[in-house]
Amino acid sequence: MHTRLSVNINKIATLRNARGGNNPNVVKAAIDAQLFGAEGITVHPRPDERHITYKDVHEIKPIIQTEFNIEGNPSEKKFMDLVLSVKPHQVTLVPDVSLQLTSDHGWDTLKHKDFLIDVITTFKKAGIRVSIFVDPDLKMIEGAAKINTDRIELYTEGYARLYAAGKKEKAIQPYVIAAKLAHQLGLGINAGHDLDLQNLQYLKQHIPFLDEVSIGHALICDALYLGFENTIQLYKRQLQISE
What we know:
The model has no long low-confidence stretch (mean pLDDT 95). The chain has helices spanning 10-19, 26-35, 54-60, 77-86, 113-125, 138-145, 157-164, 168-184, 200-206, 217-226, 228-240; strands spanning 4-8, 40-43, 68-72, 90-93, 129-134, 151-155, 188-192, 212-215. The chain is globular, with a radius of gyration of 17 Å. It has an 8-stranded parallel beta barrel with strand order 1-2-3-4-5-6-7-8, surrounded by 7 helices. By secondary structure, the chain is an alpha/beta fold. The longest helix is centred in the C-terminal third of the chain and has 17 residues, at 168-184. Helix content is 47%, strand content 16%. Helix 5 links the parallel strand 4 and strand 5. It has one domain: TIM Barrel, CATH 3.20.20.
């Protein structure tokens, strides 16, 4: 099965915002990423707009030729309004708090069941595919299957941390089990967080039915040394090894 690479361009916006002005230009970065082979563009606007701004999201949408994925916490009305206005191909629901440095856990799909059902129903009525951020916890996967989400996105920080420590078999095991259950329950499967050129191929080899990976920080860091186009191609190559 082919796994799509969606490039998260938040860190390009972080660099721009550090100096002000519009260099680097995030709209051009989105255009170029697609030209260089990205099969989707991901953005994660946060309430403080410390990287991608809400204005950026509106400006990026018209140039998307592949898929547009917007991540964020639906408890913020501003985020809900943005997604319903822009109508991306996919919205990924993430349980971030407003000043959180980066995403660090998935949804409790049992505790937040009613809230998630309402949000997912709203987005799906607008024709937007919905994915929710989850840990590789079987109860959370089962809960996700009961709230009518289209996909889950496996939060892969735990996998990446153990892989880097030389414990790749231990790292991948809970993700394989969780992904198999999700697949059996009819859920699409995305993955993201701390995936890089070292650990991506191993993940793909063991979860061949991944629909999509969303990668930002590591990819942009690699692009500083390897070039943006070359880096995107290198990441895609990791996903094609087992096809």
